[in-house]
């Protein structure tokens, strides 16, 4: 049975809070479903067999630099996207294998095993701090105080990041990762991600220089020794980009695993009691947590040639949304898939993807989960050792945060739009359509043609710097596909420049409308918003 689904529904608040009823409806329709006309992707792929095939099939590829260039995406303007495209996350097949081989030589099973005592020590220290924070009976924020801190400290230990620097990373990782969620990103998110990308690049540049000067027994030193043995195999940009992505991946994926695991065990006293009685079961618990409530839910691939998935055509160049989270609940692969069962046999889930882009840090994430889960059942604040009462945790705070493709695509319980813009430096917030704003300004007698001309000139200069051809642009030229063809990243960059220069910001809904506006309309709208502030 062929059905069509809406990307808006998939990204809507209801599905983001609880995607599994939506996944169940998809499974009733088969292995894949068409998206509606106008959606940017051709299909949603959700059945286990179809998802597994797409992730392994060389016909389906990650959205690398070549794809983005053909699609007209000006990704080189943003440091965050330059890092992503220089990493193995989005590298083309040959480059991906080359980079992954070099990093794998440094992240050996022996190195991960040697890290286990540090994982236990870090976990015990953080649990002691949790117990201290909750000693007077107050609830504690498990995600902030433990789940986000532990993997940050562990990946810092692995890479050789000094302990005193590790608290610096989480806010920058969150800002960086915000642009990786599916759908349109807000202008503030893009700007914050670029700032975080620049800061992370500077940090790892200094760390690499320090390890070249004074090698230690850590991952970065081992990686640099391998590069000395194979000079020229990795560019400086690739080295820094992959260290950043490795830190981010090791941080966010494990944090979501621990948060989801605590919720699941809190809600299931029998499963909690069984793990407390036999901690050796922890490995199977980790696998079932990953299947049942995965840290990431989707990836995106494009078809290099005309092909099909589950009998549905995918033209060359079109993208498909690969719902690994849905595949893990496919009743054709997992009997009674909505039941949490750590004893489940043959639990080969797809939480860490499959094929060439299988999660590079899966071994480390599994080790962290296996060592930490039994510890969570000990003396947590609010837990009673004698009765086995559940540790107290705010379930809303341990929902997974937004993720990234290939280790990404977490369907967060938070809407992906933050309607916090359009406030300007000194101008009051003005809502409504562009026409309403302009009409209000004329009514107040504050329309300023000279300012409009200045704004128009600024826009054209900014677009020229951004490598757009403005030779034939006039007031009636639209920013979107029918005119300048400015993509979403370009629109975000342009709006940020306007905010920095004139103190006027546009919220996310208005940013979406910007693609349909003309240069003249936008210039007059900005002028209208500046005028009231200048009158004060």
Jot down its keywords.
536 residues; mainly alpha; 2 domains; six-stranded mixed beta sheet; two-stranded antiparallel ribbon
Summarize it.
The protein has helices at 7-11, 13-17, 20-28, 48-56, 65-70, 79-86, 93-106, 109-133, 142-147, 149-159, 169-177, 187-213, 219-229, 236-267, 269-277, 282-292, 324-327, 362-376, 434-443, 449-465, 488-502, 508-514, 519-534, and strands spanning 4-5, 32-35, 43-45, 60-61, 299-303, 307-309, 312-314, 319-322.
Structure description:
The longest helix is centred in the middle third of the chain and has 32 residues, at 236-267. The protein is globular. It is built from 23 helices and eight strands. The strands form two sheets. Strands 1-2-3-8-5-4 form a six-stranded mixed beta sheet. 52% of the residues lie in helices and 5% in strands. It has helices spanning 7-11, 13-17, 20-28, 48-56, 65-70, 79-86, 93-106, 109-133, 142-147, 149-159, 169-177, 187-213, 219-229, 236-267, 269-277, 282-292, 324-327, 362-376, 434-443, 449-465, 488-502, 508-514, 519-534, and strands spanning 4-5, 32-35, 43-45, 60-61, 299-303, 307-309, 312-314, 319-322. The protein has 536 residues and is mainly α. The protein starts with a strand and ends with a helix. The chain folds into two domains: 4-398, Orthogonal Bundle (Cytochrome p450), CATH 1.10.630; 434-534, ACP-like (Non-ribosomal Peptide Synthetase Peptidyl Carrier Protein, Chain A, Orthogonal Bundle). Helix 8 runs parallel beside helix 18 (362-376), helix 11 packs across helix 12 and helix 14 runs parallel beside helix 18.
């Amino acid at each position: 049975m062929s059905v069509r689904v809406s990307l808006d529904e998939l990204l809507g608040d209801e599905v983001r809070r609880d995607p599994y009823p939506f996944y169940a409806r998809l499974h009733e329709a088969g292995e894949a479903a068409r998206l509606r006309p106008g959606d940017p992707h051709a299909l949603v792929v959700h059945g286990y067999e179809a998802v597994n095939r797409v992730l392994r099939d060389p016909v389906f590829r990650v959205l690398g630099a070549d794809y983005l260039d053909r699609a007209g995406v000006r990704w080189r303007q943003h440091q965050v996207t330059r890092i992503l495209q220089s990493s193995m996350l989005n590298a083309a097949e040959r480059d991906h294998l080359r980079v992954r081989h070099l990093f794998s030589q440094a992240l050996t099973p022996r190195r991960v095993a040697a890290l286990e005592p540090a994982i236990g020590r870090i976990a015990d220290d953080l649990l002691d701090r949790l117990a201290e924070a909750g000693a007077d009976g107050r609830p504690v924020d498990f995600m902030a105080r433990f789940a986000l801190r532990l993997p940050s400290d562990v990946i810092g230990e692995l890479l050789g990041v000094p302990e005193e620097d590790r608290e610096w990373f989480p806010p920058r990782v969150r800002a960086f990762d915000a642009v990786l969620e599916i759908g349109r990103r807000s202008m503030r998110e893009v700007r914050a991600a670029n700032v975080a990308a620049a800061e992370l690049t500077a940090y790892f540049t200094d760390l690499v220089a320090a390890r070249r000067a004074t090698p230690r027994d850590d991952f970065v030193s081992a990686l640099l020794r391998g590069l000395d043995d194979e000079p020229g195999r990795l560019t400086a940009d690739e080295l820094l980009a992959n260290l950043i992505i490795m830190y981010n991946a090791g941080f966010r994926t494990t944090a979501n695993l621990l948060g989801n695991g605590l919720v699941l065990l809190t809600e299931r006293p029998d499963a909690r009691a069984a793990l407390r009685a036999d901690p050796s079961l922890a490995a199977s618990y980790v696998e079932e947590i990953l299947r049942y409530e995965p840290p990431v839910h989707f990836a995106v691939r494009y078809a290099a040639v005309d092909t099909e998935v589950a009998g549905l055509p995918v033209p060359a160049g079109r993208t498909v949304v690969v719902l690994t989270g849905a595949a893990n609940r496919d009743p054709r692969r997992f009997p009674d898939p909505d039941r949490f069962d750590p004893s489940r046999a043959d639990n080969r889930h797809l939480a860490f993807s499959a094929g060439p882009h299988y999660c590079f840090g899966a071994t480390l994430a599994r080790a962290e989960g296996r060592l930490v889960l039994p510890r969570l059942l000990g003396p947590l604040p609010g837990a009673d050792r004698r009765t086995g009462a559940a540790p107290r945790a705010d379930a809303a705070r341990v929902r997974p945060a937004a993720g990234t493709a290939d280790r990404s695509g977490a369907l967060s319980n938070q809407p992906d739009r933050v309607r916090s813009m359009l406030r300007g430096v000194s101008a009051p917030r003005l809502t409504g359509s562009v026409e309403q704003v302009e009409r209000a300004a004329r009514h107040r007698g504050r329309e300023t043609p000279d300012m409009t001309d200045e704004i128009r000139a600024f826009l054209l200069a900014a677009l020229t710097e951004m490598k757009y051809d403005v030779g034939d642009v006039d007031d009636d030229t639209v920013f979107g596909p029918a005119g300048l063809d400015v993509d979403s990243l370009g629109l975000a960059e342009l709006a940020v420049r306007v905010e920095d220069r004139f103190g006027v910001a546009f919220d996310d809904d208005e940013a979406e409308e910007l693609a349909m506006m003309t240069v003249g309309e936008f210039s007059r709208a900005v002028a209208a918003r500046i005028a009231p502030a200048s009158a004060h």
